[in-house]
Each structure stands twice: as C-alpha cells, then as structure tokens.
Amino acid sequence: MARKLNLRIWRGNRESGSLQNISVDANEGEVVLDVIHRVQAEQINDLAVRWNCKAGKCGSCSMEINGKPRLACMTQVSSFPEDEEITITPLRAFPVIKDLVTDVSFNYKKAMEIPSFQPPEGMKPGEPRMQQVDVERSQEFRKCIECFLCQNTCHVIRDHEENKESFAGPRFFIRIAELDMHPLDMLRNRKKKAQEEHGLGMCNITKCCTEVCPEHIRITDNAIIPMKERVVDEKYDPLRWLGSKIRKREGIL
Amino acid sequence: MTNNSAALERHKYDVLVIGAGGAGLRAAVEAREAGLRVAIICKSLFGKAHTVMAEGGAAASMGNVNEKDNWMVHFRDTMRGGKFLNHYRMAELHAKEAPDRIWELEMWGALFDRTKEGKISQRNFGGHEYPRLAHVGDRTGLELIRTMQQRIVALQQKDKQEHGDAESFIKVFAELTITEILKENGKVAGAYGYWRENGNEVLFEAPAVVLATGGVGKTFKITSNSWEGTGDGHALALKAGGNLVDMEFLQFHPTGMVWPPSVRGILVTESVRGEGGILTNTLGERFMFKYIPDVFKDKYADNEAEADRWYLDQDNNRRPPELLPRDEVARAINSEVKAGRGTEHGGVFLDVSKRLSAEVIKKRLPSMWHQFYELAGVDITKEAMEVGPTCHYVMGGIEVDPDTAAAVNVPGLFAAGECAGGMHGSNRLGGNSLTDLLVFGRRAGMGAVQYLKGTSATPVSEASISKAVQKIAAPFTRTGGENPYLLHQELQEITHNLVGIIRTKKELDEAILKIADIRMRIQNVTVSGSREFNPGFHLSFDLDNMLLIAESTAKSAVIREESRGGHTRDDFPNMSPVWRQKNNISSFNGTEVVVKQQTLPELPKDLFGLFDPHELEKYMTQEEMAKGGSN
Questions:
Q1: Which has the least CB within 10 A, B367, B490, B590, B621?
Q2: Is the pLDDT reported for residue A236 higher than 60?
Q3: Which of these is catalytic: B132, B273, B443, B488?
Q4: Is position B428 within any domain?
C-alpha cells in the first residue's frame, strides 16, 4: 500500500537555504504532515516544522505546497498524481526562521492594534439576550483558526514588505467585521478606522484570501465588501451608526 | 548558546504561568487584575493551545434550557461520572462557579449559540442529567481560547494606554519550553527554560508559578492529543517535590476516528451522540443496550423505543445508553470489537445521518462534517462514521488544595486544568473540562495573589542555574546514542499494549520493567543538528517527562486492584468500596516514582444528603453509609 514519494523540501535559515530532494514512503490515507514527520523521524531529525493538533483546528502547520498556501495536516497525499514531485516551502510573506518555520509575529503585532470588544456600560454578566440570527454573522468570522494563510497569500503584502506597516490584512479585517457586527459591541467607527488606520482601502477584492481559507470563511464577500460599502455612508452619517446600535440594543434588553 | 550566566536572559515577574490554554490564560487574567506582573509561557504560538480541540461545549448549570438544572444536580452528575472518587470540594466549587465563568466570557466577547429567548443555548451530553453544555456549534474550545487570548490582548492594550507599554504587566513568551522549576530554601523561586527558535536559555525569577500545561496523551500511541500533551507540568511538579494523585485514571474517549490510519485517534465529538447519533456493530445491532451497568439502570433506557422518545420528551423517558459516561461507552466498543463484531479497521459505526437532516448536521456539527469529508472521504450526512476509543484525557494530576489550587508540598507552586488532579475522580464527564479550566484557572490566579501577600521573592542561586544549564546542554554533548523519535515510538508501543484500556497485573509488571529500561537508555539520547528550532532536541526533554508519566501510570495501575472509571483491570473486574476511599499518590525520589495510598477526604453531611442513599450504597462501605458523611 505504501508508495514512494518524491519531495522537495526547503531547508535553510534566515540567511540562506535551498530545496532538498527527499524520497520517502507514504501510506494510504496519509496527509503531507504525516510524510514530513516520517522524514523527521527517519532522515532529518532536526527538520523544523510547526504543528499541533493535526486535525485542521489549530492552524499551526501552514506552509506552501506546490506553491499553494495550505495546512499540511489537511492536504491528502493522494490528491497529487502518483509521479508528481511535491514541493514544500515555508510561507512566503513572512521571514523564515528555519526550514518550514516562519516568523509570524507580524500578525500578533496587528492583533494588538485592533481595538478590543467593548460591551455596553453597566451590562452585567448573564444579562445579554441575543438572537441566533444576530450572532451568526460574527460567528462565521470567529471560526478563524489563525493559520494566517490569508495573510500570506494577500498580494498587498506578499510581495510588498513596505505595505506591512499600514495594512492589517484579511485576518484582521474579519476581526474588525466580527466586532462591528457583534450585537453587544459599543465601540464607534470601526469601519472608518478599518479604512483609515488598518488599510482596508488597499484591498482590491481579488478574493485570494477567501480561496485559501481552510475554514471556508467568506472573507471578501461577508466581511471586506460590506465594510467597504458602508464605510462611505458612515463617514458622513453618524445617525445611521447610532440607529444600527440602538436597534441592536433593543434586541438585547 | 548560553553558557555563562553573565549573558543569560533574565526576567523577573510576580507570577509565572506555564501553559497558555484556557486555565493558564484565566489564571493570568486573575493575577493581572489583582495588580501583579505576569509572564505567560506558551510552548507553541499564542492561541494554539490544546483547548482549541474541545468541541462539544462547556458544562454549567445555567438552567437556560431546562430550568430544573442547578449546581446540586451538576455536582451529583460529576460525582457519579467520577464514580465517587472525585475530591468532593473541587466538584462542589466547579458546579457552583461554572455559570459565572461562562457568563463572564460573554462579557469578554464570546458568542455562544442562543436559545429562542436569546439566552446561551445548552446541549445534552453523556452523564449530564439536563442539557447543560454552552456551545458554539462543535468548536467551543476555539471560542474559549480565542476569547481568553483576546481578553489578554485587551488588558495589554489598557496597560499600553495607562503605562505606555503593552507588556508592562502581562507578557506572552511564545515558543518557549520550561525544563525546570527552581526552588530556593524549600520555596519556588522561578523557572528555567529555552527559546525553541534558537535554543537560547532564559531564567525567570518569580515567587509564584502556576502550572497549566494540560495532558499527557502523547505518552500513548492512539491519542486525540497534539504534540504538546507530553505531561510537562505533571513532570515538573514531580521533580519539584510535588505529588500526583491517581495517575492510573486515563480517559479513553469512546469515539476517535479509526480510518484512515494517519488520522487514527482524532476526536469525534460526543455532541454527535448528544444530537442523536447511534452506535451499531457490524451485525447492525444497537449494542449499547447490553452495556448499561447496574448503577445506571434507573437512568438509561433499555429499549430503542424509549431511547428514541427521550429526544422529544426528556421528563417521561430514560436517556439513550449512547449517552452513558465515556468510560462505559469506551469499554462497550472495546468489547464489541474484541468479540469480532467490529469493522475491519477495528471500530464500530456511529451514525447521525438517519436522525438529522443534512442541513441540520452541517449546522450543528460543522467541523465533524468537514473533518470526515476532507480526511476520510466520508459524508456524515449520508453515511456512518467508523469510530473507536482514543486516549483523550488524564483524570490524574498534580495534588492541589481545592480552594487555592496550591500544589501540595511545594510552597509557591499552583496547578490548574488538566494537569491538576482530583476534580474528575476516576472519569471526567464531557463538557466539565472547559469549565474546569475557567473555575480553577481563576482560583489558581487568586491562590497566587493570596500567597504573594505573605511572601517575598527569593533570588535564584548560581548553583541552581548551572545545574539547569548542564541539563539543557547534555543531549548535544553525547554521540552515537539513541534517536529520540524511535525511543518515543517504543514507549508508545509499551503503554498502548500494556497500560491501555484493559489492564492486568502481568502486563503492568512487564510495562514497569520496560519503562525502567527506556529510562536507562534515555541517558544516552543523542540529538543531531544545532539548537535552532530543532524538534529532535525538544523531543529529548518531552520524552523525559513522558517517561515519568508512564511510570507513574503503570505503578498506580498495578496497585489499584479494582475497576473504576478510566482504570479497568481484567483480573479485578469490579468496583471495590474499600478502594473508593483511597487515592494513589505518586512522588519522585530522584531515581524512580514511588506510589503510596492516602485516604480520600470524606463527603461532608450536607453534600452526602444531596444523594439518594440507595445510590450511595452501590459505591460506599456499610460504615460510611451508617455515618452519613463527615461533620
């Protein structure tokens, strides 16, 4: 049942690196992470790779497989033709630490810049009442496992290091959208801030982020586009914002 | 490489929290809110903790779906699930405080699924009398970890505003491994470790350390745990002079994936059964009706018609036996497979497609649908899943004081979450883990705050530092020794074959000898490559921890001559009321694990009185019944 697999794995560090050809066995039903582990145990003990749950739930084993940003634990070996070489490289948008491990601290820096959830003043634990239909919009974005594949693929930063300063990236646009649509969040002007401070305007909706999302979150259609559309209204119409929140609060109380 | 202490990276904090899952983060929040400076150590990236793997929900008797629920019912269910070996005070605190911990998450931005009235929805789960689990589809753990992570960020943002530096009070040290707890004059003084990225060493000086490192699953071959579940906190506590309680109790979750081989062990949430999934063998029999133990006969339906009616009318029907506590279901599946009624891959069938529409399945069990579709090529809206037991959770853990989470014997050390013992007795109910993290994470934070009011920091001595330095350097100084990966696989084979679901004295004795042999050989483990992000190097430390876990588990298991919860002895198949009064306490004498018995604290009269005496009779001795609880 085992088949021989020819891999090309990028090995190196911050300074330099190159693709290394490796031949390894793959068994029925295995995913790319399984064969990487076999290489690690049998051939290259110090091969660096991040992983945790191996079930598509933690978002740690993000890498590029034949140039596509993927989770290695959710990529079946059988999805590649028998004789095809599989090329495994680290995420391109982030600096390499070693082999397949990259420095993703950019994302944690951006997370720190997004203003946090702000519940209504005076609301006590246990009081909130929300309808399922009202929480579902934000719940879609809270499915995010922070694999950062969307950040990696977004061309605004993928090949433009200089944009990183002013661009939060798709992962944090859905975070802003999540809070903006959260029935209890009271912070004003989230959309406006997304536009003015987090670089929402730099996104030209090519939907690359949506395509690579392993959780199938409709990043562009459900978060980015609605925010882009409404940011214009709100810029000039504070009453409209207030209206939306008052309606939300009636639902709560 | 850090060889002289002049160049050593040093940090001083009030509280050091080791582990960044639900319990660790909740402890950190509590300590920060009391004004302390806190360091959080993550073995992985921030937000990747094993907590994300919890699927079904968080048990709290909010009474949103059935108003008859309250803390007393939850307490009873927890004790029953643990076969009355739980530390009663932990089960009591947990049941009482769980609802507040869930409501608090909502104030930090969590978005649980709702009832029609707009309250937090609650679902049925094995062993819980009423619908009790707050949930978000089947990704509740992710919601919990993300909410806690975002709460930490919110506190850091506030610190930035007020003190100019986001990390002035809470700093997260991601991808850092702690190798040792440091003590001076009998008290905790800090901890030592290294950055995984470059192998550089770090000294933390802190008078209080909270262990929240989770489980031990990687000691076993088939497990739902991620690579991090290597029993680090259990081992750190043992080496620091602490105790482990009842390490023989391991939960084999009844439903892990069994096919294809590469995903063997990955969890299939109990919600599948909570939502109506049924278990059948290859003869098409719904076999669970055959496995209802006497102690549960009045609560579980013994026929299909009644079991099916329960989904519509829970007041007038008994529950389906698929919802028995996990230990019962795991043993039943194991028996069916052993009797030759299992699938060719060694599992049984779990089917939800006949009871729910495809649309409802995708809505209530989205990640299960996803997992089976993408990893096994199975569409669970149309077909049955193949499932079998997988090592999921360790009930045993660090012996702590229930109210403060302070580790027994080690002043300044605290423990919460899966690495702490006592709360779940011999078997944990599904859903009790997530609220355990929150209730005791908070209490560990409070415990540390209280402790620091009466003590001051002790500087770490140069002698302690140089010992820790040598330990980290050791694997690189050896040549020609064994490969840590292969040694790990060998250990997993031993635990799987000899310390598994069904145990015997002969096999456990054999396991103890074999584990001692690996203990000798690990002295010789060699690591190739540099210190830079080197998984082989990391594994050499994890392996040392897993060996202590395996030894403690096997030694406790051979001593406990009864079957209870997550410990089944083929040679002692029944529960023993005498053993119910005893905890197995493991300690480490520097060369091996020593196990002694200790009397379990007695149920006080008020809690004793919450049970029907006829139920307690099934577990307790006549003397205990006559006494009716302690005063």
A1: B590
A2: no
A3: B273
A4: yes
| Residue B300 and residue B241 in one domain | no
Measured CA angle at B570 (ends B394, B324), to 5 deg: 55
If one counts the domains in chain B, the total is 3
Q: Measured between alpha carbons, how far is residue B127 from residues B323, B328, B351, B365, B533 in Å?
A: 6, 10, 20, 20, 43
Contact at CB, A119 and B117, closer than 8 angstroms: no
**Domain-embedded: residue B405:** yes
Residues of chain B in contact with residue A139, where contact means CB-CB under 8 angstroms, are 111, 136-137
B176 and B28 inside one domain: yes
- For chain A, the domains span 3-102, 105-252
Grade residue B371 by pLDDT with cuts at 50, 70 and 90: confident
DSSP chain A: --EEEEEEEEEEBSS-EEEEEEEEEE-TT-BHHHHHHHHHHHT-TT-----S-SSSSS---EEEETTEEEEGGG-BGGGS-TT--EEEE--SSS-EEETTEE--HHHHHHHHHSPPP-PPTTPPTT-----HHHHHHHHHHHT-----HHHHH-HHHHS-GGGGGG---HHHHHHHHHHHH-TT---S-HHHHHHHTS-GGG-----HHHHH-TT---IIIIIIHHHHHHHHHHHH-HHHHHHHHHHHHHHH-
Q: Catalytic residue at B273?
A: yes
The alpha carbon of residue A140 is apart from the nearest alpha carbon of chain B, in Å, by 10
- Cβ contacts (< 8 Å) between A34 and chain B: which residues? 262
Instruction: Please indicate if any CB of chain A lies within 8 Å of the CB of B367.
Output: yes
pLDDT, tens digit, 9 for 90 and up, residues B498-508: 999 999 999 99
B517 shares a domain with B446? no
Where helices occur in B499-534 by DSSP H, the ranges are 505-522
- Between A28, A112, A184, which is nearest B260 by CB? A28
- Domain extent, residue B376, equals 253-391
Residue A63 backbone class (left: φ over 0; alpha: ψ -120 to 50; beta: rest)? beta
Nearest CA-CA distance, residue A53 and chain B, Å: 5
Q: Does B210 lie in the same domain as B83?
A: yes
pLDDT at A249 over 50: no
Domain boundary among B391, B424, B442: B391
**The last residue of a domain, from among B435, B462, B489:** B462
- Please state which CATH number belongs to domain A105-252: 1.10.1060.10
Q: Is residue B483 part of a domain?
A: yes
What pLDDT is attached to residue A2? Answer: 80
Q: Is the pLDDT of residue B287 over 50?
A: yes
**Chain B nearest CA to A125, separation (Å):** 5
CB of B90 within 8 A of CB of B423? yes
Report how far residue B80's alpha carbon sits from residue B610's, in angstroms, rounded to the nearest whole number: 12
Classify A3-102 by CATH class: alpha beta
pLDDT tens, A108-118? 999 999 999 99
Residue from the list A48, A74, A112 with its beta carbon closest to the beta carbon of B156? A112
Asked if A130 and B263 come within 8 Å (Cβ–Cβ), the reply is: no
Residue B606 resides in a domain: no
How many Cβ pairs closer than 8 A exist between chain A and B? Answer: 175
Active site residue B253: yes
How far away is chain A from the Cα of B116, in angstroms, using its nearest Cα? Answer: 7
Domain of residue B342, CATH code: 3.90.700.10
What is the SS3 assignment for B375-430? HCCCCCCCCCEEEEEEEEEECCEECECCCCCEECCCCCEEECHHHECCCCCCCCCC
Domain of residue B556, CATH code: 1.20.58.100
Question: Given this model, what pLDDT does residue B528 score?
Answer: 87
| Cβ–Cβ contact A7 with B under 8 A | no
If asked whether residues B220 and B354 sit together in one domain, one would say no
Residues B24 and B123 in one domain: yes
- B428 plus B525 within the same structural domain: no
